[in-house]
Amino acid sequence: MLTISQLASYAGVTVRAVRHYHATGLLPEPGRDASGYRRYDAAAVVELIRIRTLAEAGVPLSRVKELLTAGESEFACAVADIDRRLRAEIQELHRHRKRIAQLAAGDSLALPPEAVAYLGRLRELGIPERMIEGERDAWILVAAQLPGRMEMYIRNKRDQLEDPSVVSIYRELDDVIDWAPGDPRLPAVADRLVAQLEAIDQAEWEAFAENGFSDDLADLLDSMFLDQVPVAHELMRLIQERGWTGWTNLKRLETPHRRSATGG
After folding, report:
1. How many CB atoms lie within 10 A of CB 177?
2. Are 251 and 243 in contact (CB under 8 A)?
3. CATH class of 1-69
4. Which residues contact 157 (CB under 8 A, 6 or more apart)?
5. Could you read off the pLDDT of 26-39 as tens digits, one per residue?
6. What residue segments make up the domains of the chain, in order of their start?
7. Phi-psi label, residue 84: left if phi above 0, alpha if psi -120 to 50, beta otherwise
8. Is residue 32 helix, strand or coil?
9. Are 231 and 238 a contacting pair, CB within 8 Å?
10. Which residues are bridge partners to 38 per DSSP?
11. Shortest CA distance to 2 belongs to which of 50, 41, 43, 28?
12. Is this structure's pTM higher than 0.70?
């Protein structure tokens, strides 16, 4: 007769596993001897090895007892069912692995190649990383909603980067992120932004209007700017005073109320 430690050793499991199988009803508990110890016979070793073999094959413990008592045809059907479940789990794990690989790929997560290349171009131009991160997150939202338009949007953005004044604005806006409301430099920034808007030709504005974002998406993108930049509300107000409204969907006001660069 064997102690629980000897039983576990013969079957190639831990004592803890034996106790777990007792608790779940998979392995009957023998009575205690005169010394108060449980003693196991050879049949218990055989049964424990069968349990271990099924568990190691991926059979859920909830079904091990069923298989231990199943006939040949029932056993075959149960094994086929478990095999289907394991294959489905393997496919799901492969999908998870692909997602994990994407996570390691940085900008490639949730963005098409042209957007990744555009972000790379921003880095080549020396645009600060936090500005690039903001662009990345915004494009993730756009790509999720308008995947078919991404190539066109990114092409237009890359064309804009050929203008040194656009690159300069990117760098300036990175500085603006750290400014506090009421900063005296804000009106001048608004002037430069508006000057750039007014330099865009009518054909480009018409193309933007035709392929622009929905109001809901524009509001969501605007909220990122408003939440992350302390002076965002003030800057948008200054731009509106100079004849433009919005941030993502910028539009010229019909009857703008203009103010000077000093806000007077």
Report:
1. 16
2. no
3. mainly alpha
4. 118
5. 899 988 888 888 89
6. 1-69, 72-104, 111-252
7. alpha
8. strand
9. no
10. 32
11. 41
12. no
